[in-house]
Amino acid sequence: MDKSSWKIGTQAVQGEYWPENAKSRVVPLEMSTTYRYDTCEELASVFDLEQDTCMYTRLSNPTTDIFEKKIALMEGGVGALATASGMAAVSIAVLNICKKGDSILVSNTIYGGSYTLFTTTFKDLGIEAIMFDPDIPEEEMLSLAKPNTRLVYGETLGNPLANVIDFEKFSNVAKRLDVPLMIDNTFATPVLCKPFEHGANIVIHSTSKYLDGHAVALGGIIVDGGNFNWNNGKFPELVEPDESYHGVSYVNKFGQSAFIVKARAQLMRNFGMTPSPFNTWITNLGCETLHLRMKKHSENALKIAQYLHDNEMCAWVKYPGLEDSQYYGLVKKYLPLGASGVMTFGVKGGRDASRKFINSLQMVALVTHVADSRTCVLQPASTTHRQLSDAELVACGISPDMIRLSVGIEEAEDIIADFEQAFAKCRQ
Ligand SMILES: *Cc1c(COP(=O)(O)O)cnc(C)c1O
Predict the structure, then answer these.
(1) To which H or E segment does residue 94 belong?
(2) Cα separation of 251 and 211, whole Å?
(3) Which of 81, 213, 333, 378 falls between 20 and 30 A from 361, CA-CA?
(4) Which residues does a 6 A CB cutoff place in the pocket of ligand 1?
């Protein structure tokens, strides 16, 4: 059975589990830190990376393994590594190929937490983040790179601006630099966009968002496209012998899967940013309806964006699925099935009016979250992007009156009714 030829919805439901005779039809939850072996020799071969079986849950677990294989299948990658959070996924993915003295080219419209990780913690580790506006032309982007640049990084849909990156430009720059393109695909999910089809080499997710979909389990995942040649002189850590693993060369031993094997065998072993099997079990269950949910999130979001667009109380609305969005062309090209559920808008009257609007909502909740089944709002300048200076806020397009709206899968009419009564209170 060639599961890679299945449609994405079938992969979401059926990937990657099939029970043996008389075994549980549903993915079993194996809450165990450890695994029994018959002989010392067999267990030793697992330690030598000769066998792909579980020996300790910090490194792998049967439930987590099924979830990892599902996401790798849906993204079209060669392997995946689940992590305890989205931030853990970003950290491990970058540190797997960047070290002191390296630099990375980073879109400045990324999630605030990632922005801070790049500009402070990685900086302290000696890795320089060269932040750039993702809408600049290719040549300008290329000119920012340095000889020590090891990576180009962006988000399919930025958090919170929901700006769409021009994959062609990003992948051209990465190819001309001969470094990988790493894409955070959290807001699009593989249902709406598959970055490997547009030149990405590594994909990461905060699974805490749409993949779980119900705001239950924190998590992250790294997917390896298996489509980058690491043997180009820039990535000795993947080619030269790893002394902490009896001199294994990841490229020589694991070929296309070198990146993801090293991430697990070396960084996950050393950092231990491992998800609980319970969390990967829940996230896997959430993923079974991902294709249905992303369709509804996108449909609802378009309806709400049009409603806000035509509402006299709304100062501005930015949703890439709106025809007058500057990103509409990129949506048609890279997100033809829908532009996901996140948008930003401001209420006429500035910061205070936006705050009054949020405080007046009855069904739609104010929460520090985004991308789950229930519609929610948040003010980025006072929350997710609070650590950024005013200048940084302006540079990455966050205005003080901005409301980030994450449209859920309720019925659009009821969300609009809540907005109507909140706008009415703002008028008083
Ligand atoms: C939330 C988020 C993260 C961080 O994920 P956590 O699971 O909260 O650690 C990273 N990238 C994007 C785009 C996000 O939205």
Answers:
(1) helix 86-95
(2) 30
(3) 213
(4) 85-87, 111, 113-114, 155, 159, 184, 186, 206, 208-209, 218, 220
| Tokens describing residue 101 | 């003295």
CA dist 95 and 196 (Å) reads 21
Identity of the amino acid at 81: L
Closest alpha carbon to 280 in 17, 1, 43, 20:
17
pTM: 0.97
Q: How far is the CA of 70 from the centre of ligand 1 (A)?
A: 20
Ligand 1 centroid – CA 352 distance (Å) = 27
Tens-place pLDDT, residues 341-367: 999 999 999 888 999 999 999 999 999
Q: How much is the mean pLDDT over the chain?
A: 96
Distance 187 CA to ligand 1 centre (A): 9
Mutate to test the pocket of ligand 1, among 108, 186, 202 (most ligand atoms within 8 A of CB): 186
Nearest-CA residue for ligand 1 atom 12 is 111
